[in-house]
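ZP: hey, is the alpha-D-ribofuranose complex queued? I don't see it on the tracker
AM: it wasn't, my bad. submitting now with these inputs:
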Amino acid sequence: MTTPDDSKIPVLIDCDPGHDDAIALMLALGSRRLDVLGVTTVAGNGTGPVTYRNARKVLSVLGANVPVAKGADRPLLRKLVTAPSVHGKSALDGPELPEVPETGAPAEALDLITEVLLGNPDRRVVWIATGPLTNVAIALVARPRIKNALERIVIMGGSTGAGNWTPSAEFNIHVDPEAAKIVFDSGVPLTMIGLDVTHKALVYPDEVERLRAAGRIGKLAAELLDFYSIFYRKRGFRGNPIHDAAAVAHVIDGSLVTTRRARVEVETHGEFTSGRTVTDFSPEGLEAANCDVGLDIDRERFVELLYATIRSMG
Ligand code: RIB
Ligand code: CA
């Protein structure tokens, strides 16, 4: 995605906060390169009400004046799987964020998505999805005209190899494989920022301490990572993979992540392989390519972008 330096990239974010979603929101809202037009939430790391509440808390702490709307409470067909083992019961365990009083029923994600994508015919929007793809799939099916307003969908999800929730599937795809299949088969330009990238998008303990000293938002980010690191340390990680922030960083600076064209098919039937993003880099796969697949990231520059942006937020 390139635009003249003086113009911002219009983005819409669908997320399931989630510690790394929260840091992704910090990066997106703190970046001078992005114009965040709206945030929608989906059940994933927590239930629908929980991720919606968490998004509102984070945006309130950031002082962000961005419309937020609540999306799906469950996948298209399957029972909801959440991730308390990673993110805790509140899906954002660790620092206490002030409650944000509800003012009436939450806005509907489909309405906000429609408004953002169909409200300005001259604008093409980058849609960043950092949770299960339920909302994205629903919108693509219910409002097919939104495809014309989409520059690209950048997905944090999938893997060209092993998963992180099952041996086959990365969590976001695992939760709603049918939704993911709709998105990958949609014909909309896609970038898959999967585990091949995000398991290298690591923030090491000394870099967490740099964030802690980088102001109010940096301190919050560090406190979120204090909790988030518990799970990953137990899994043998030396650093915290900030999965969702890697997807946002890719939109901000396309030179950070190395991608390669491929055909990606989402497995929705296998007893042990459901949710796998089967990635075909062969000449036939290239011929039928539907996705730019992330393979590597410049970790140091990613962390520097994260640090500099969060520090600039005060
Ligand atoms: O597999 C990592 C992804 O699942 C991240 O988006 C994390 O927030 C969880 O949603
Ligand atoms: Ca997420």
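AM: back. The chain has 13 helices and eleven strands.
ZP: great, adding it to the tracker
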